[in-house]
Amino acid sequence: MKFTINLPADLEEMSVEELLTTEWLVPKKQRHFLRSKRHILRNGNVARFSDVVHADDQITVLFDSEDFAVKPLTFGDEQLGKSLILYEDEHLVIVNKPENMKTHGNDKTEIALQNHIAAACGAPVYVVHRLDFETSGAVLFAKNPFVLPILDQMLRDRKIHRTYQALCAGQFAQNNLTINRAIGTDRHDKKRRVVVSRGGQRAVTHIQVLKHFATETLVQCQLETGRTHQIRVHLSSLDHAILGDPVYRGRKASRLMLHAKHLELRHPFTKENIRITAVSKSFERLMRKIATD
User: Fold this and answer.
1) 162 - beta bridge partners?
2) For residue 15, what are the β-bridge partners?
3) Domain span at residue 27?
4) DSSP bridge pairs for 88
5) Does residue 49 lie in a domain region?
6) Is 59 within the bounds of a domain?
7) Cα-atom radius of gyration of the chain, to the nearest Å?
8) Annotated catalytic residue 132
9) Most buried of the four, 96, 141, 201, 252, by CB within 10 Å?
């Protein structure tokens, strides 16, 4: 496995070790392989970790197959996968997940979004984050096991920004609010989450009202944390359940009206700012119907 990366023109001078550790967030285990096997090159020559890299240098990293534990993945529908891709380069792919499709299967025999994207890319892809089965919108996959832990760390450091739209019941008293309420598992139903006063996981959702309708409100939601069902639980806890959400008492609709509209990040290697917008025809269609009723 070989990757060649051209350093951006505005990169400050730093050592190879600083590049791998601070700039690229390469995990310790992979840094050890690169150092011990002398598998990092600068402009075609073997580089030491103390060597200084400069803007526009060409960095090549080499990995043996045993450097990563890669599980086999069954491929899905190539044409479907290609139709869902919004952005793709050598290291990552952003796709538009349809509603009522799993992000990944529970076992190797189950075909899900991950399998279709792998077929479209011609190689396995790796889940960085997931969307609920019922939720549509932008999902990020890593295209190789080298970038996967880097993207994982960026997600933990809140350097990957996800913006959702939700159509929910009722009217909001204010146009901007932050819901900071811990979430735990419902002791009566392990598949369901609830707001809890003690214990649970910290959960923070920022809400902005986009449009009022007669009995519904379209809101924009930004996640500060990424808990299971977070937006659905938080809105339901304020009596603003999302339409089409039977788990959290949402009014009946043809689909769950929750859509991951935007995904934004700074590319870990090129430092390019990437902002992708995902459009859902079924979400927009139901929105138009609500607006005209």
Assistant:
1) 263
2) 52
3) 2-67
4) 93
5) yes
6) yes
7) 21
8) yes
9) 141
